[in-house]
Design goal:
The complex is a heterodimer of chains A (about 110) and B (about 120). With about 110 residues, chain A is mainly beta. Chain A is built from no helices and 11 strands. The chains are: A mainly beta (about 110), B mainly beta (about 120).
Protein backbone atom coordinates (compact mmCIF):
# COMPACT_ATOMS: atom_id res chain seq x y z
CA UNK A 1 0.00 0.00 0.00
CA UNK A 2 0.91 3.62 -0.11
CA UNK A 3 3.58 4.73 2.31
CA UNK A 4 4.95 7.96 3.60
CA UNK A 5 8.61 7.80 4.57
CA UNK A 6 9.83 10.14 7.25
CA UNK A 7 13.47 10.85 8.07
CA UNK A 8 15.38 10.96 10.28
CA UNK A 9 13.89 8.68 12.89
CA UNK A 10 15.72 10.47 15.71
CA UNK A 11 17.50 13.80 16.03
CA UNK A 12 19.42 15.09 19.00
CA UNK A 13 20.39 18.77 18.95
CA UNK A 14 21.80 21.41 21.24
CA UNK A 15 19.41 24.15 22.18
CA UNK A 16 19.68 26.91 19.61
CA UNK A 17 20.55 24.60 16.71
CA UNK A 18 18.20 24.14 13.78
CA UNK A 19 16.23 20.97 13.07
CA UNK A 20 14.62 19.58 9.93
CA UNK A 21 12.48 16.52 9.33
CA UNK A 22 11.49 15.27 5.89
CA UNK A 23 8.51 13.39 4.59
CA UNK A 24 8.58 11.62 1.22
CA UNK A 25 6.05 9.73 -0.87
CA UNK A 26 6.33 7.86 -4.15
CA UNK A 27 2.90 9.10 -5.19
CA UNK A 28 1.31 12.51 -5.47
CA UNK A 29 -0.41 13.65 -2.31
CA UNK A 30 -3.63 15.65 -2.06
CA UNK A 31 -2.43 17.34 1.07
CA UNK A 32 -0.05 16.83 3.94
CA UNK A 33 -0.47 17.54 7.61
CA UNK A 34 2.03 17.85 10.42
CA UNK A 35 1.40 16.86 14.02
CA UNK A 36 3.46 17.12 17.19
CA UNK A 37 3.33 14.65 20.04
CA UNK A 38 4.97 15.60 23.32
CA UNK A 39 6.39 12.74 25.42
CA UNK A 40 3.50 10.98 27.13
CA UNK A 41 0.99 13.06 25.19
CA UNK A 42 -1.19 12.74 22.15
CA UNK A 43 -0.66 14.02 18.60
CA UNK A 44 -1.67 17.64 18.13
CA UNK A 45 -2.29 19.17 14.73
CA UNK A 46 0.21 21.80 13.65
CA UNK A 47 -0.55 22.68 10.05
CA UNK A 48 -1.86 21.49 6.72
CA UNK A 49 -0.32 22.10 3.30
CA UNK A 50 -2.41 21.76 0.17
CA UNK A 51 -0.86 23.66 -2.73
CA UNK A 52 2.18 22.69 -4.76
CA UNK A 53 5.24 24.56 -3.49
CA UNK A 54 3.36 25.94 -0.52
CA UNK A 55 5.37 27.39 2.37
CA UNK A 56 3.83 28.24 5.72
CA UNK A 57 5.41 29.61 8.87
CA UNK A 58 4.45 29.42 12.50
CA UNK A 59 6.93 31.47 14.54
CA UNK A 60 10.16 29.40 14.39
CA UNK A 61 8.56 26.57 12.38
CA UNK A 62 8.62 26.55 8.58
CA UNK A 63 6.64 24.01 6.60
CA UNK A 64 7.10 23.29 2.90
CA UNK A 65 5.21 21.20 0.37
CA UNK A 66 7.20 20.13 -2.68
CA UNK A 67 6.42 21.30 -6.17
CA UNK A 68 5.46 17.77 -7.21
CA UNK A 69 3.42 17.29 -4.02
CA UNK A 70 5.43 14.19 -3.16
CA UNK A 71 7.49 15.53 -0.29
CA UNK A 72 7.35 17.94 2.59
CA UNK A 73 9.61 19.28 5.29
CA UNK A 74 9.36 20.86 8.70
CA UNK A 75 12.19 23.13 9.77
CA UNK A 76 12.62 24.53 13.26
CA UNK A 77 14.94 27.48 13.66
CA UNK A 78 16.89 27.84 16.92
CA UNK A 79 15.35 24.93 18.78
CA UNK A 80 14.17 25.30 22.34
CA UNK A 81 13.53 22.65 24.99
CA UNK A 82 9.82 23.15 24.42
CA UNK A 83 10.28 21.73 20.91
CA UNK A 84 11.01 18.28 22.33
CA UNK A 85 8.66 15.60 21.02
CA UNK A 86 7.87 13.50 18.00
CA UNK A 87 6.86 15.19 14.77
CA UNK A 88 4.61 13.24 12.42
CA UNK A 89 3.63 13.93 8.87
CA UNK A 90 0.34 12.51 7.64
CA UNK A 91 -0.90 12.56 4.09
CA UNK A 92 -4.16 12.20 2.28
CA UNK A 93 -3.63 10.70 -1.13
CA UNK A 94 -7.13 10.69 -2.45
CA UNK A 95 -10.73 11.32 -1.67
CA UNK A 96 -10.96 9.21 1.45
CA UNK A 97 -11.05 9.77 5.16
CA UNK A 98 -7.86 7.94 6.01
CA UNK A 99 -4.54 9.58 6.66
CA UNK A 100 -1.30 7.79 5.88
CA UNK A 101 1.12 8.45 8.71
CA UNK A 102 4.87 8.67 8.70
CA UNK A 103 6.68 6.91 11.54
CA UNK A 104 7.68 10.22 13.06
CA UNK A 105 10.91 12.00 13.94
CA UNK A 106 11.74 12.17 17.62
CA UNK A 107 13.51 15.38 18.57
CA UNK A 108 15.59 15.70 21.72
CA UNK A 109 17.01 19.09 22.70
CA UNK A 110 19.93 19.49 25.08
CA UNK A 111 19.65 22.66 27.18
CA UNK B 1 -15.73 21.82 25.05
CA UNK B 2 -13.98 18.73 26.33
CA UNK B 3 -12.90 17.79 22.80
CA UNK B 4 -12.10 14.09 22.56
CA UNK B 5 -12.14 12.05 25.75
CA UNK B 6 -11.16 8.43 26.30
CA UNK B 7 -11.89 6.02 29.11
CA UNK B 8 -10.18 4.35 30.78
CA UNK B 9 -6.80 6.06 30.85
CA UNK B 10 -4.97 2.90 31.86
CA UNK B 11 -5.91 -0.76 32.12
CA UNK B 12 -4.20 -4.05 32.84
CA UNK B 13 -5.77 -7.20 31.41
CA UNK B 14 -4.97 -10.86 31.56
CA UNK B 15 -4.72 -12.83 28.34
CA UNK B 16 -8.17 -13.86 27.19
CA UNK B 17 -10.07 -11.14 29.04
CA UNK B 18 -12.29 -8.73 27.18
CA UNK B 19 -12.74 -5.01 27.49
CA UNK B 20 -14.22 -2.00 25.76
CA UNK B 21 -12.52 1.32 25.26
CA UNK B 22 -14.82 4.30 25.03
CA UNK B 23 -14.19 7.40 22.97
CA UNK B 24 -16.46 10.42 23.12
CA UNK B 25 -16.32 13.72 21.24
CA UNK B 26 -18.40 16.84 21.69
CA UNK B 27 -17.44 18.61 18.47
CA UNK B 28 -20.21 17.07 16.36
CA UNK B 29 -17.61 15.46 14.11
CA UNK B 30 -18.75 12.96 11.51
CA UNK B 31 -15.57 10.92 11.38
CA UNK B 32 -13.95 8.96 14.17
CA UNK B 33 -10.88 6.74 14.28
CA UNK B 34 -9.11 4.27 16.50
CA UNK B 35 -5.31 4.01 16.31
CA UNK B 36 -2.74 2.04 18.19
CA UNK B 37 0.76 3.36 18.79
CA UNK B 38 3.71 1.11 19.46
CA UNK B 39 7.38 2.10 19.77
CA UNK B 40 8.94 2.57 16.35
CA UNK B 41 5.65 1.81 14.57
CA UNK B 42 4.04 5.21 14.48
CA UNK B 43 0.25 5.38 14.43
CA UNK B 44 -1.61 2.47 12.88
CA UNK B 45 -5.29 2.71 12.06
CA UNK B 46 -7.41 -0.06 13.55
CA UNK B 47 -10.95 0.89 12.52
CA UNK B 48 -12.70 4.06 11.55
CA UNK B 49 -16.19 5.41 11.07
CA UNK B 50 -17.52 7.94 8.61
CA UNK B 51 -20.82 8.35 10.38
CA UNK B 52 -23.27 7.02 12.92
CA UNK B 53 -23.98 3.36 12.33
CA UNK B 54 -21.08 2.81 9.92
CA UNK B 55 -17.63 1.38 10.52
CA UNK B 56 -14.76 0.24 8.34
CA UNK B 57 -11.52 -1.66 8.77
CA UNK B 58 -8.22 0.10 8.91
CA UNK B 59 -4.68 -1.18 8.64
CA UNK B 60 -4.65 -3.56 11.66
CA UNK B 61 -8.26 -4.59 12.45
CA UNK B 62 -7.73 -8.20 13.55
CA UNK B 63 -8.66 -8.89 17.16
CA UNK B 64 -10.74 -5.72 17.48
CA UNK B 65 -14.34 -4.78 16.92
CA UNK B 66 -15.97 -1.36 16.93
CA UNK B 67 -19.38 0.19 17.12
CA UNK B 68 -20.72 3.68 16.46
CA UNK B 69 -24.29 3.64 17.73
CA UNK B 70 -24.24 7.34 18.53
CA UNK B 71 -22.50 10.06 16.56
CA UNK B 72 -20.52 11.24 19.55
CA UNK B 73 -19.27 7.82 20.69
CA UNK B 74 -16.94 5.28 19.14
CA UNK B 75 -16.30 2.06 21.04
CA UNK B 76 -13.35 -0.26 20.55
CA UNK B 77 -13.72 -3.81 21.81
CA UNK B 78 -11.19 -6.51 22.51
CA UNK B 79 -13.01 -9.83 22.76
CA UNK B 80 -10.04 -11.93 23.87
CA UNK B 81 -7.02 -9.84 24.74
CA UNK B 82 -3.55 -11.00 23.73
CA UNK B 83 -0.13 -9.71 24.85
CA UNK B 84 0.40 -8.41 21.28
CA UNK B 85 -2.40 -5.94 21.96
CA UNK B 86 -0.37 -4.19 24.64
CA UNK B 87 -0.20 -0.69 23.27
CA UNK B 88 -1.34 2.89 23.60
CA UNK B 89 -4.71 3.40 21.94
CA UNK B 90 -5.71 6.78 20.58
CA UNK B 91 -9.09 7.85 19.41
CA UNK B 92 -9.43 10.74 17.00
CA UNK B 93 -12.24 12.62 15.33
CA UNK B 94 -12.51 14.95 12.39
CA UNK B 95 -15.13 16.94 10.59
CA UNK B 96 -16.17 16.96 6.98
CA UNK B 97 -14.44 19.72 5.07
CA UNK B 98 -15.02 20.57 1.42
CA UNK B 99 -12.27 19.19 -0.73
CA UNK B 100 -11.83 16.10 1.43
CA UNK B 101 -9.23 17.57 3.73
CA UNK B 102 -9.67 17.63 7.45
CA UNK B 103 -7.53 17.62 10.57
CA UNK B 104 -7.82 15.03 13.27
CA UNK B 105 -8.30 15.79 16.95
CA UNK B 106 -6.91 13.20 19.30
CA UNK B 107 -7.95 12.00 22.71
CA UNK B 108 -5.39 11.62 25.52
CA UNK B 109 -4.94 7.90 24.91
CA UNK B 110 -5.55 4.65 26.77
CA UNK B 111 -2.54 2.66 27.91
CA UNK B 112 -3.33 -1.05 27.82
CA UNK B 113 -1.12 -3.77 29.23
CA UNK B 114 -2.04 -7.37 28.52
CA UNK B 115 -0.28 -9.92 30.69
Amino acid sequence: GQQVMQIPQYQHVQEGEDFTTYCNSSTTLSNIQWYKQRPGGHPVFLIQLVKSGEVKKQKRLTFQFGEAKKNSSLHITATQTTDVGTYFCAANAGNNRKLIWGLGTSLAVNP
Amino acid sequence: NAGVTQTPKFRVLKTGQSMTLLCAQDMNHEYMYWYRQDPGMGLRLIHYSVGEGTTAKGEVPDGYNVSRLKKQNFLLGLESAAPSQTSVYFCASSSRVSGGQETQYFGPGTRLLVL
